[in-house]
Amino acid sequence: MLVFYLFALLVVWLGVESLRGGFRYLSYVKGELRRVRPAFTPFVSVIAPCRGIDQGLEENLAALFRQDYPAYEIIFVTDSKDDLSLAVIEGLRAKFIDRANVNARVIVAGAASTRGQKVHNLRAGVEQSDARSTVLAFVDSDARVHEGWLRALVAPLGDKEDEGDERIGATTGYRWFIPVRGGFASHLRSVWNASIASALGANAAKNFCWGGATAIRRETFHQANVLEHWRGALSDDFALMRALRQSGLPIHFVPNCLTPSFEDCGFLELIEFTTRQLKITRVYAEPFWKSVLAGSFIFVTVFFGGVVLTITRAALGLSYFVPLVFVAVAFALGAAKAYVRLKAVELSLPAYSAELRRSLWAHVLLWPIASALYLYNALAAAFSRRIKWRGIVYELKSPTETVIIDAP
Predict the structure, then answer these.
(1) For the chain, what is the mean pLDDT?
(2) Pairing relation of β-strands 401-406 and 392-398?
(3) Going by DSSP bridges, is the β-strand pair 392-398/251-262 parallel, antiparallel, or unpaired?
(4) How far is C-alpha 402 from the chain's CA centre?
(5) Is the pLDDT of residue 12 over 50?
(6) Is residue 179 a contact partner of residue 280, using CB atoms and an 8 Å limit?
């Protein structure tokens, strides 16, 4: 019992620190949303890799044409001229042909052989982007951006410490899953993903890029030698993050570019998605994977062990007050963190306040199950580096070596 109480105290302390982090995240979001930046709207190449039909694909891609931005191009990149997404893309190009501020075109990059297909597509998009573009922006086909997304993502890149000295290496947003029809697995995926979203914030040196909403100056992209970091890589955003960190360039999180993904998933899809993320993390950011493994193991053992201990002692007629208090306090701290985080996200996504409020119960109640899922994901990543992504099976040998096992 003494050992349990010691670890329970550790879990409570970690819960307090996590809640403090939630308030820091809320404060950062409020400050960034109030911030007024000087206008910086150079020509931008928006590169959107596509493969297959995502849920809500037409609405997602249509949002790229509706950007409140002076002049930009959209480069849709597929690996095959027979990709199902092309019919949707061509329909949208015809629909928005009269928009003078945006030019959209399609590149067929072909099949990848020594790297991830998404990285392969992005390299083709960069190499064939308009020479006028000062900024390269990357977006995922399952993300639905708002009209001010591009302007907000690009603006911080115009900030400078001194004349001619660029302070920010790249800007990034992050995904927020919003279930459409709902369901346990869809809500649990949203809760699981939420804890990563709130890891971004004021500490630019520790921020990471999310490939679904990232912008970088073309000059910085080449100075940081990103194309070389993408050679043999599976993860575009982790490789970009490593390139920027090696160059000493910070990553700025833009709360106004928190981007919803309107998707549902089944239980098997949930397991596949979450485990894939941790396997990629183990290869590209092993210290973080180790911290997830250790932290989730301690929490799951203490929290769910405390639940079992409380029930067992109650059934045996023994005192169960102390373990019950530990469990209750740990749960309350996590629920409070989830609530604070969701309020911050509501500020970033005001157009979806109703949908976010409907998911409040999931974020407040399901976070311990999400922690257990993290433990499973981290353990699975310890024994396998093989993943399936967009129908392609990969073996992750190292950050710079990806083997394609099966590419139908």
Answers:
(1) 94
(2) antiparallel
(3) unpaired
(4) 21
(5) yes
(6) no
Task: Quote the pLDDT of residue 263.
Answer: 94
Confidence of residue 275 (pLDDT cuts 50, 70, 90): very high
Query: Rounded to an integer, what distance in angstroms lies between the CA atom of residue 362 and that of residue 184?
Result: 9
In terms of Cβ atoms closer than 10 Å to its own Cβ (0-12, 13-18, 19+), residue 314 is: middle
Burial 245-254 (b: 16+ CB within 10 A, else e): beeebebbbb
Q: Can you read off the two tokens belonging to residue 294?
A: 């250790």
In this structure, what token pair is assigned to residue 348? 């970033």
Contact 41, 132 (CB under 8 A): no
Which of 206, 197, 48, 352 is CA-nearest to residue 189? 197
């929490």: which residue's tokens? 299
The whole model's pTM is what?
A: 0.93
| One-letter amino acid for residue 216 of the chain | I
> What is residue 4's predicted lDDT score, i.e. its pLDDT?
85
Paired residues of 162 in beta bridges: 165
Token couple for 353: 């306040």
Confidence of residue 160 (pLDDT cuts 50, 70, 90): low
